[in-house]
Amino acid sequence: MSVNQREIGRRKLLNEIRRQQRIPRISLSEVTGISRATVTTITAELLREGLIEEVTSDTTEKDSKRGRPKVDLKIRGVARLIAGAKISNKTISLVLLDFEGTQLADHEAALETTVLSADEMAQVLAELVEELAQKVDHSLQDVAGFGLGIAGVVDAPRGFVHWSPSLTSRNVTFGTVLEDALGIPVFLDNDANLVAMAEKSFGLGQGHSDFIVVTIESGVGMGIVINDEIYRGTRGCGAEFGHTKVQLEGALCRCGQRGCLEAYVADYALLREAMLASGEAAERQVDEVLQAAKDGDEVAASIVERAGRMFAMGLANIVNIFDPELIILAGEQMQSSHLYAEEVIVSMRKSIVQVDKAPPEVVIHKWGNLMWARGAAAYALENVSENALLEMADNVV
Amino acid sequence: MSVNQREIGRRKLLNEIRRQQRIPRISLSEVTGISRATVTTITAELLREGLIEEVTSDTTEKDSKRGRPKVDLKIRGVARLIAGAKISNKTISLVLLDFEGTQLADHEAALETTVLSADEMAQVLAELVEELAQKVDHSLQDVAGFGLGIAGVVDAPRGFVHWSPSLTSRNVTFGTVLEDALGIPVFLDNDANLVAMAEKSFGLGQGHSDFIVVTIESGVGMGIVINDEIYRGTRGCGAEFGHTKVQLEGALCRCGQRGCLEAYVADYALLREAMLASGEAAERQVDEVLQAAKDGDEVAASIVERAGRMFAMGLANIVNIFDPELIILAGEQMQSSHLYAEEVIVSMRKSIVQVDKAPPEVVIHKWGNLMWARGAAAYALENVSENALLEMADNVV
Fold first, then answer.
1. Is residue B289 part of a domain?
2. Which of B154, B164, B317 to mutate to test the interface with A (most CBs of A within 10 A)?
């Protein structure tokens, strides 16, 4: 067995044990196609590294020959601590997981200013991760990896932020700034990608290798999962669903361009029209516009309906390009419900290429702020797991 | 070494030999990470099966110790014959390749009717592949696999045509119809996917793992390559770029829906406007409209310019979603040059998410009808190669 093969074998077995939660050695050999002898060798290494552990199988069935209880392998929870966080408009949410993915603690803090410099933001996060770790009697330095979701255009593999509404400057290697401030490995990604990661790891995307997640907060985000992996594009500028154009020379978007989907469906787009119609200078809330539409106000209804039609058109374009099995409309804000309405889904179905086969399933998944943070932690967990394997390889060589 | 590992090893080595064209055993071991002993065992099997052969290395350098000439491995061209074809509006183009991918013959035939029943089309193709094989003193039955590109919505892995402008009926398992008529394995795909396959195998996509190909004939097609593979979606309805919507409730498309990109940029879209403007009932040709635009006819210029702006908007949407490294605008018709013009590319660049990094490279690749057929043959070659490996596995078990 070459070094290369041994590395591939370790990765395969560790991932399989994680996927199966508990599995005896003999089944590991069967599902992976790796010989029993190699499974024995590699799992011994993983046990020695403390990444997995043996547990007595729940079954009362005994090994018939020797009367010994059957033994399963599982991920060893205490092997590593993993933190994840999501920066929202006015709050930062955090979770702490063990190496099995079990949530040990969570934490939420208000942000006084919505936009900070990279250094200030890193300082805030270092303090919050420390507070989080203290909740389980650990400190920041005990955390093996920190995953962070941030809005904006992020080149994840390079930890590079092209721009983010949460940071004062563009083009920051924010991953490095964070690693300097926290002193632990940091894994950074666009927040919508981390929702896709959360859906895949413990949400509605479980068991699906290809699906699309659309998120609506103040902006419109998208995460694309292809072949079990987040698709990120080559410059970290992929999946910019909110800035796909739905109208040539259309409404002005916050990004400075015209006709973006966001310029028709985001909060500010609805408010812009509502204020114009009412002639009021006073700021209105989006939920007031939505309520007025429900109460039969024709102008409000027209504003809300157009947003729905534009959203349906944007979704149909995604279906025509990806032909996904599943689309998850994910979000924490109830105020997006007009976009997730049945008539919007029906309108989307009418706008896709018509074949005599069922259209993609569309599901709506409403959840709280912690889901984003859990996605960030799941991303960190994946990377920490990979790093643990690479360290093993170094030990061997 | 398990059966599973041996199969994976064979696939890896055969693909590597194909990629490198000529390579000594020792380098094979180095680049694949497979041990020298296993490389020796597996290449002996591949030699015995006649899929590869030994050739004396070109180099004058000798094995220092024993003075023997160095030996490279290469794919054995005569191992298999592969045919590929593309059904166009009025012609069928075919090529014949050997197992190395070298083109042995080509053939082109006029189609008297543009739409045929599946059975009639299969009969025509069987005759044409027979004629093609005879050009190198072989017959249809000597061909190991036939790849076919057809316009429309095709579920490639199932050989299923949801609909095609070339066939009279919808929902045909055309792959099976063809295999019955030809008596050899058939591999069917959407024609734009096969252009992407051609670009990847011997065009501008060589060495790129992720890129997008856009084709313009009478319709607008797209092929997506992600991680070195054609992305096909889950129902065979992906990459329908021509039917992404660029205008809510916009111009009527041939597909019956409104606002599709095709309804603004395809031949019929330009002619529809040109005829309305001129008030002439007589049919005009697209190149007349393009020429009129060049000659300063304002109405013609307005028609052509709008097509360009809509095309730029559609392309920008693709970039915002995929963030590809490379976009290949491929086609055989010079008449698409107004869409491939510099001002269209500039307009696309202005409509994508702006970051301080170069936008994707856009290249234009004009070629003849045979490129499509070569792509179809490349697709068949990939599958024939895989089948040859599976037959070996069966022999072992």
1. yes
2. B317
